[in-house]
Amino acid sequence: MFSNLLIKFFIKNNEDIQNEEVRNKYGYLAGAVGIVANLLLFIVKISVGLITSSIAVTADAFNNFSDMASSIITMVGFKLASMPPDKEHPFGHGRLEYISALVVAFMVMLVGIQFVKSSIERILNPIPVKFQLIPFILLFISILAKLWLSNFNKFVGNKINSSALKAASVDALGDVFTSSCVVVSFLAARFTNLPLDGYIGILVSLAILYAGFTLVKETISPLLGEAPDLDLVQKINEYVLSYEHISGVHDLIVHNYGVGRCIASLHAEIPSNINIMTIHDIIDKAEREISKELKIHLVIHMDPVCVETKEVSEAREEIQNIIDSNSNIKSMHDFRVVGDGDKKNLVFDIVVFHENKVSDDDLIDYINNEIKSIHPQYNCIITVDREYH
User: Fold this and answer.
1) Residue pLDDT, tens place only, 210-232
2) Coil/strand/helix, residue 357
3) Nearest to 260 by CA among 95, 77, 100
């Protein structure tokens, strides 16, 4: 409820998330909310930590301070990522949003490392922690605040598909856990004189490190070139196949240059006997309309397929049966029969799974041997493709 009120108050046309300006405003709003919330939490926790001499509370306070800095970096990341394309970066600067999320992740890990050291020192040289009711209540309220902040970042991150805000959500949720550990430590001081503060501080620090490591994994993936979203893959395939004369699609590759900056290419199978100008107009139309609909830049390569004859149909069926019997092969495409007379070449591509451990040459030899056992006059010319999604 409060999240929606914030969005409606600060962002005009907030439902038009495909608009880059609106999307950036979401990022700025989430960053500003994170700065204000974490600054208030830092002030509360550092005060409690100093009053009660608790290293665990102090560690948690500086974790909130680093979160405030990370919110600033997130806002800067949105600003830089929105810069228009230039000569050096013709596809824009969208990946800077991922880089800003990666910087935030490393900052979280740095805080964790620092407070592992502080907690070990406190274990070796314990100082009694004083339980006081008002600071305890303030810490409990901070947990509720972090829980709301995590949900807010998750809500906005999902709405605009932002890896930076999704990372901020995970970080805030980790803070809920770490603050809960601090509250337990603080509460335990009321009932025992055992030096639990340093040990709880270790748990808090390790949780911070784990959250940072998780964020690094999640934010570095798109920079390395992760597989595209399956929903996007399905939509591209379905849209292309909806156009007249296109009978199949394959070799789809999606390059991600930041949210809303995807370049996709694929091969579309068309009848080889169709008028070239007719199918060229259809392909042009498909590229233009699908690019606009899905907010991507789509390039379609035309693959003519053999006109169906009895010989082509029977040869394709036999090859398909051979492929179906091998669990290492996912599919076949671009099938055609080339040559005259007794000797014929069966030319086609096969798609194999990424986890396949059988060599390409072994698969090619397997198919060739199988088909020659049926038709010695056939020779297979095979290209092996890897699935990209």
Assistant:
1) 877 887 887 788 888 777 888 88
2) coil
3) 95
At which of 244, 275, 304 does a domain end?
304
Domain span holding position 346 = 306-389
Main-chain phi, psi angles of 379, to 5 degrees: -125, 130
Asked if 111 and 193 sit in the same domain, the reply is yes
- What is the model's pTM? 0.65
Rounded to whole angstroms, the Cα distance separating 255 from 299 reads 12
For residues 98 and 210, what is the distance between their CA atoms, to the nearest angstrom?
19
What's the number of domains the chain is made of? 3
The answer to whether the beta carbons of residues 204 and 113 sit under 8 Å apart is no
pLDDT for res 223: 81
In the sheet that holds 262-271, the strands lie side by side as 248-256, 262-271, 296-305
3-state secondary structure of 302: strand
Angle between helices 133-160 and 55-81 (to 10 degrees): 20
Residues paired with residue 98 on neighbouring β-strands, in sequence order? none
* Domain boundary pick from 281, 304, 327: 304
pLDDT tens-digit readout, 248-284: 888 898 988 887 788 999 999 888 888 989 999 999 9
